[in-house]
Amino acid sequence: MAEGKIISFNEGALEVPDFPIIPFIEGDGIGPDIWRATRVVVDSSVNILWGEKRQIIWTEILAGEKAYNHTGNWLPPETLESLRTYRVGIKGPLTTPVGGGIRSLNVTLRQKLDLYACVRPIKHFPGVPSPIREPRKVNMVVFRENTEDVYAGMELKQGTEQAMALIAYLRNNYGWEIPADAGIGIKPISRARSRRLVKAALEHAIKQKRKSVTLVHKGNIQKFTEGAFRRWGYEIAEELYPDITISYDQCNGMPPEGKILIKDAIADIFFQQALTRPDEFDVIATTNLNGDYISDALAAQVGGVGMAPGANINYENGYALFEATHGTAPKYAGLDKVNPSSLILSACLMLEHIGWEEAARLIEEALAEAFLNKTVTYDLARLMPGATEVSCSKFAEIVCENMKKASQLNLF
Ligand code: NAD
């Protein structure tokens, strides 16, 4: 077997060897099924394109139930260490431990590695069932701030000494009357973290030649957190890219050729408009809780959770963790039944991140072909008249066959 090398980061860019070591977390529940399918597809794409010249050297790291059963720890320190060392990793879904001090392994991983941008592309594949009339109009990329907002984990339980003390302090110092039986949560939204998230969204829009960046917020009500996020978003666009971006007010919503429109939308109306006129949205930059709701709601428009990929990225040091966006679906665990597309498409984001875009394109085309041919897993088959239902592993096999056919026809 070829010797793997570490991916490094130099002057703002990843340096990727031909045999990069990439750690994977298989995940719990359906994790092993979708991971096996994903690995086969990724390895096959790399092999088709580059033969023996390139190969990913996978190395397993533990988290979740499997880690707990082997080590007594849901998230062993070596796992975080490996992700730091190897910089880029991929994971299946993880069971959220009940009790034991960890609220969510995903949130912990994102915060410990400061993976500040949760990136979720939402694009429709022709043929995939959708609840909306014109799903082909949906083509957005959501940049969700990943480290603060109500996810900062600063909550005090109702009735505790600390909650009572904080309630008293707020009454005495600010005149805020909070019911004595309230639980309390803190929502920090900082200037630096808002700016770096919006900067990532802007740079993505510039690189991918997107038309607009929409800042989604609840600034009408939460002026100093959500409202400030909006203001800082416009501020950084103006500061860093005055020649490439133009705000809605400056051009009445009609940007001149070559300029990226920067606009904003209040979260509630955004949900309506994303349904009624999805083609007016392109790159979305938003705070953590809004982004959580938005990415799942948009995923529903293009085929549901089994289809939506996710990436958690720190653009300042290249650390990145790619993941299926759904959970462990315990009732389907080990049945070789579920749709592996979310993790396969997340792997495509990973391949793009390391600069192996050709492999990502090859996989996406092969997936698109499978959807068009209606050879799909149960979740899509039940909504597609005339579809052939296949298992998770068979679906991966079909994607590999499609890639081979495409490469023989020199379509790549
Ligand atoms: P879930 O996403 O695991 O499953 C809900 C339902 O969605 C399933 O019953 C199934 O019908 C469908 N589904 C999910 N993935 C699918 C796929 N790939 N193909 C086809 N259908 C699919 O949500 P849940 O039941 O609320 O959560 C189960 C566990 O997963 C919990 O422990 C939860 O905390 C955890 N979770 C983890 C993540 C993560 O690791 N990123 C995300 C969400 C939930």
Largest sheet: 11 strands, mixed
Task: Work out the number of β strands.
Answer: 17
Mean pLDDT: 94
Q: Looking at the structure, what is the overall shape? A: globular
As a percent range, the share of helical residues equals: 40-55%
In this entry the ligands are: nicotinamide-adenine-dinucleotide
Please indicate the percent range of residues in DSSP E strands (runs of 2 or more): 15-25%
Describe this structure in words.
The chain has helices at residues 31-50, 65-71, 77-86, 105-112, 161-174, 191-207, 226-240, 248-251, 267-276, 288-301, 341-353, 357-372, 378-381, 392-408; strands at 8-10, 13-15, 21-25, 57-60, 88-91, 117-123, 139-145, 155-156, 184-185, 212-217, 245-247, 260-266, 283-286, 309-313, 320-324, 375-376, 388-389. It is α/β, with parallel strands linked by helices and 412 residues long. The strands form four sheets. Strands 4-3-5-15-14-6-7-13-10-12-11 form an eleven-stranded mixed β-sheet, sandwiched between helices. Strands 1-2 form a two-stranded antiparallel sheet. Strands 8-9 form a two-stranded antiparallel sheet. Helix 1 packs parallel to helix 14 and helix 11 (341-353) packs antiparallel against helix 12 (357-372). The structure holds nicotinamide-adenine-dinucleotide.
